[in-house]
Amino acid sequence: MTAKGIVYVIDDDEAMRDSLHFLLDSSGYKVTLFDTAQAFLDVLPGLAFGCVVSDVRMPGLDGIELLKRMKAQHSPFPILIMTGHGDVPLAVEAMKLGAVDFVEKPFEDDPLTAMIESALRQAAPAAKNEAIAQDIAARVASLSPRERQVMQGLVAGLSNKLIARDYDISPRTIEVYRANVMTKMQANSLSELVRLAMRAGLLND
Question: Which residue ranges form the domains of the chain, and what is each CATH number?
């Protein structure tokens, strides 16, 4: 059975973690539990896209600080905040920092799972775009300085001869660099290379 999506639960209360694990697992989600926000942040760069469900009041790093850190990292993960009664001001602050919603404890099961489903559905396109942007940036980073110069010449519409003249090297050498650029950028055509350069922000208006 394919999971509906991934949910990362962050709460210092073991009983709450166990309860959420049971609820979400039985609802078809793949669940990973964390007892502190720091433990989650430590592994965040390697985590697959998912929805974060975090308590707002925790020892050490609280839910508000977690939101600030994730915002600073441009994380595409949607975040739902769990609050206690009387924590509405904290919940409002969380929403201002990018939380997609908040739920007051104790909460009903169905509204929570509906919130998670909605959060994942709405955030998925942005997460996909972010992943693509990171992939393209990694391809650009793999280019040597000379390959990057050749790529910029190509997307500017210069011929191999003109690029060779600019850098005082032979057109044959430019052909080798051009082949390397196309391979590393995973581009099958010049138009595809131009599109990738635009996505990477290498083309000025």
Answer: 6-132 (3.40.50.2300), 142-199 (1.10.10.10)
